[in-house]
Amino acid sequence: MSNPSRRAALMLAAISAFAAPASASMDSAPHIPEPMVFDMVRPLAARRGELEANALALFPLSAPGEKIDWAPEIEYAFADGHAAELELPFENGRLTSGKIGLQGTFGTFAADKAVHGWQFLGIVDRDTGRVESSLLYIVGVRYSPRWTSLTMVGVNIPNERHRAGERRDNALLVNHSVFRDFSPRTTAGIEFNVRAGRRDTSWLIIPQLHQRLAPDIMMQAGAGIQKPANRRAHPNAALRMIKEF
């Protein structure tokens, strides 16, 4: 990880540790579903010792030449409200990069109907060694026994090992998801992702279904429209399988 990314991660970890919510705050935090595509590092207010393995696959539909993006990852809550992840993104059968994530919880507010925190992501490109990092603020709100939302807003800083004269394409990141619980096992939602950079904007809209198949196994599946950077929009489908330990 580059020096700017390392400093940002250490600063966030120190801030979150200083403002670490008490266990009582963890217990009173509302349950907010996680978006399928823009994955979180365990839910906010995760308890120490929680461990999860999952894999996401994105399948382009009606887009000749587009690759299947998929990534296995492991997530671990090393303290109450704090978690880390390691992810290995692939394109078809080729490993393209390595990704680490850190996430912390600030606490609850609005009479424990909302919870907020932060997330740091660092990605190293396998071929070029270039690093990009993202820093996001996260807020989840439970409006009623059935309706919730989760919003992530931040900045993506790519190409930190850029060539002389090359400008960084810093970008605004926004993820907003709305969910409705139909039962303790079934949740439906819609997820909006936007990356707005200086050169181009990419976005994704994907309705999704979250189905708990067993106490420790969940499936998330959906289909929607994706507009990659510098390419046309096309339909796609996604599937994430989750195993908790």
Describe what you observe in this structure.
This protein is mostly beta strands. The chain has a single domain, classed as monomeric porin ompg (Porin, Beta Barrel). It is built from two helices and 14 strands. The chain has helices at 3-18, 23-28; strands at residues 51-60, 69-79, 82-87, 90-91, 94-95, 97-109, 114-125, 131-142, 147-157, 171-181, 186-197, 201-214, 217-227, 234-244. It has a twelve-stranded antiparallel beta barrel with strand order 1-2-3-6-7-8-9-10-11-12-13-14. Strand 1 and strand 2 (69-79) form a beta hairpin. It starts with a helix and ends with a strand. Residues 1-19 form the signal peptide. Keywords: Signal.
Number of strands: 14
What is the level-2 CATH architecture name? Answer: Beta Barrel
The CATH superfamily turns out to be: monomeric porin ompg
Rg computed from alpha carbons, rounded to a whole number of angstroms: 18 Å
Beta fraction of the residues?
A: over 45%
- In round numbers, the mean pLDDT is 89
Q: What is the rounded distance between the termini?
A: 29 Å
**What shape does the CA trace take?**
globular
- CATH C-level: Mainly Beta
Taking pLDDT < 50 over at least 5 consecutive residues as the criterion, the unreliable ranges are: none
Number of domains: 1
Given the helix and strand composition, which structural class is it? mainly beta
Helix content: under 10%
Largest sheet: 12 strands, antiparallel, barrel
Count of runs of 4 or more consecutive helical residues: 2
CATH overall fold name:
Porin
Helix/strand order: HHEEEEEEEEEEEEEE
Arrangement of strands in the largest sheet: 1-2-3-6-7-8-9-10-11-12-13-14
Classify the oligomer: single chain
Signal peptide: 1-19
Keywords: Signal
